Amino acid sequence: MTSNLQPVPAIAPRRVHPTAVVDPDARIGNGVEIGPHCVVGPNVTLGDHCVLHNGVTVAGHTTIGAGCQFFPGAIIGMPPQDLKYRGEETYLEIGHDNIFREHVTIHPGTANGGSYTRIGHNNFVLVGVHVAHDCTIADHCIFANNVQLAGHVKVESNVAFGGGTGVHHFVTIGKHAFVGGLSRITQDVPPFMVAVAARGPRSEVRMVNGVGLQRAGFTERQVLTLKKSFLRLFSRRARASGVPIVATIHQLLEESPLDPNVEYLCKFLLRAYEHGRNGRYLESLRNDSKWTRAKDHPGD
């Protein structure tokens, strides 16, 4: 007679180095490896098969999904660098299968910013990257060495950053965008585009992220359609035409058939141009006072 009982999966043992300091109240999943001189706080949850290499600190109310790796010197969940923070209980949530290389720092949220910093799944975060309070990062993003995100930044999925890039607080980076190295990003970066450092304090939209889109499975036709939209919106000829970019956006939205990627691009731009402040849509949603705005973000 055939049994319907399924075998019980084996529980992978945890491996904790004797020099690590792990609070007994921390919730540690199966198969977790914690290396020498790591510190794990009482309100931390580590999902199954996470790996903390030597010298990693995980503190605060931090929840980490399965299969994440943290390399030496990473400091995760320490209090945010914000003068408004008064020790209130705020949170950091990290998804599964992320890699955080050496000396990455990630801070939880603040009560004024919604109390949460959130990072999705399958992100690759390289040496020296800083993710400040109240940031939201989606999935499949790449942060090269020393990228610095100020508070309240939103990064959509499949974004890649070149090294040494600084992102102003309340900026949104659209999905499938590429941000060139050593760029100073002070305004929202449109999805599907390449933004690079330009003369003066701002970056500029240089081209469609064709290589990134092809790698993500976009068809030649989809990429070509986005390139045609780029020429109408951001090319030198478009800037020299005297036609306001908002007018061109509305023209694109009225065309039929409307490509869904072009529609997403246009609506993203309208948020920043028509509803945003200083080119940043999220800036228009902030709820802090004039006094705290002037004194906010001393270190981010």
Short description:
The protein is an alpha/beta fold and 300 residues long. It is 19% helix and 23% strand. It has a single domain (79-295), classed as Hexapeptide repeat proteins (UDP N-Acetylglucosamine Acyltransferase, domain 1), CATH 2.160.10.10.
User: What's the domain count?
Assistant: 1
Low-confidence stretches: 290-297
Question: Rounded to an integer, what's the Rg over CA atoms?
Answer: 22 Å
Mean pLDDT: 93
For the biggest β-sheet, the strand order reads 1-4-7-10-13-16-19-22-25-27-28
Compute the number of strand runs: 28
CATH class: Mainly Beta
Shape: elongated
- Please state the structural category: alpha/beta
Strand content: 15-25%
- Count, helices: 6
Largest sheet: 11 strands, mixed
Q: Per CATH, what is the topology?
A: UDP N-Acetylglucosamine Acyltransferase, domain 1
User: N- to C-terminal separation?
Assistant: 66 Å
The CATH homology group name:
Hexapeptide repeat proteins
CATH architecture: 3 Solenoid
Helix content: 10-25%
